[in-house]
Amino acid sequence: MFTPKPLTISVVFAKLKEISAMSGNASQAKKIERISSLLVACRECEAKYLIRSLSGKLRIGLAEQTVLTALGQAACYTPFHSAAAVKGCNSSGLLDASVGQGAEQWKARVETAVANVKKAYCVCPNYDKLVAGLLADGPDGLHLHCFITPGVPVKPMLAHPTRGVTDVLKRFDECDFTCEYKYDGERAQIHVLSTGVIHVYSRNQEDNTAKYPDIVNNLMPRVISSSKLGLQYQKLLDGDADVPESVDSNTVSCVPVESCILDSEVVAWDRQANQILPFQVLSTRKRKDVEEATVRVQVCVFPFDLLYLNGVSLIEKPLRIRRQILRNTFSQLTGEFMFATSLDSSDTDEIAAFLDESIKGL
């Protein structure tokens, strides 16, 4: 027996990526083999942190937001990553770019860099691309490398709870609100690629495509084939027009939907009673290797946001516009694909009544 070589960060990282990419027959045995080879080479406390890394719980107090903040700050303090950029710069400037900068000016620069890193990670949660973009063009150029792309799940925008409708109205003072039903289901980010490939992702960016063959192979192809983007909205996407009040797809020229990212809620649905079933029913569906013919729990997709359409990111556009494009482009299918029930209002009584209606029968 010979002593294995000491582990290095690059070797461990490469092995972990190798393990995560394994799938199919005998993948379990192959994963065990790779993990065993790493454990054999561990020294001192390395095995403990290797196991924690594999389980996804390091438990060292390092939250994701801390990592993103550190990346933004590091890119500010050490901005020179090429030989050409280093020329003519003194050693202190290489190690600390804040040298010679005013305190307020430097603080603003760091805050902007951190904000850019966090924004880029939200639309492209991939550290490989994020770090490569920072090295190439710094925080200000991240938008050139990290952007919303079908097939790469976007970090979800989550709500913050409040004590009641009145608290929300006070906080935003006279603003119009959009209220939507919160469905008792599972978040589903549906990606339709221009190649026709369809993926379904969870709120944690897990690939749930195999869990919903009925959505991927049956429902979404029908939805896409029946959906049309009016040229008025195409011009809006291109930034050449105002928001049209309404569009009759029968009287205007339309283009087909080629790619999109929909944010939605998938709920269990009773086709006979034509109503939503409790989440507990949805949770009985298998998670892996599901065959469409064996599906017993039928689902309905409730889309509530449109993040991307035909090659254009809609994230920077207001929700009002995104939802208007969503509802004027896609066609509803009763009991299968229906828009989330919503209300736009700034009237407290009206909003409270809408809330009461949404929870009726619970």
Automatic annotation (TrEMBL):
Gene Ontology MF term list: ATP binding; DNA binding; DNA ligase (ATP) activity
Its GO CC terms? mitochondrion; nucleus
Reactions that this protein is recorded to catalyse: ATP + (deoxyribonucleotide)n-3'-hydroxyl + 5'-phospho-(deoxyribonucleotide)m = (deoxyribonucleotide)n+m + AMP + diphosphate
Task: Supply the Pfam families for this chain.
Answer: DNA_ligase_A_M, DNA_ligase_A_N
| One GO-annotated biological process of the protein | DNA repair
Does Nucleotide-binding count among this protein's keywords?
yes
The record, for InterPro entries, names: ATP-dep_DNA_ligase (IPR050191), DNA_ligase_ATP-dep (IPR000977), DNA_ligase_ATP-dep_cent (IPR012310), DNA_ligase_ATP-dep_CS (IPR016059), DNA_ligase_ATP-dep_N (IPR012308), DNA_ligase_N_sf (IPR036599)
**Top EC class, one word:** ligase
Superkingdom: Eukaryota
Gene3D superfamilies found in the cross-reference section: 3.30.1490.70, DNA ligase, ATP-dependent, N-terminal domain, DNA ligase/mRNA capping enzyme
What keywords does the record list, in alphabetical order? ATP-binding, DNA damage, DNA recombination, DNA repair, DNA replication, Ligase, Nucleotide-binding, Nucleus
Q: Which residues form the ATP-dependent DNA ligase family profile domain?
A: 292-362
Subcellular location field = Nucleus
Q: So what family is this one in?
A: Belongs to the ATP-dependent DNA ligase family.
How is this protein named in the record?
A: DNA ligase
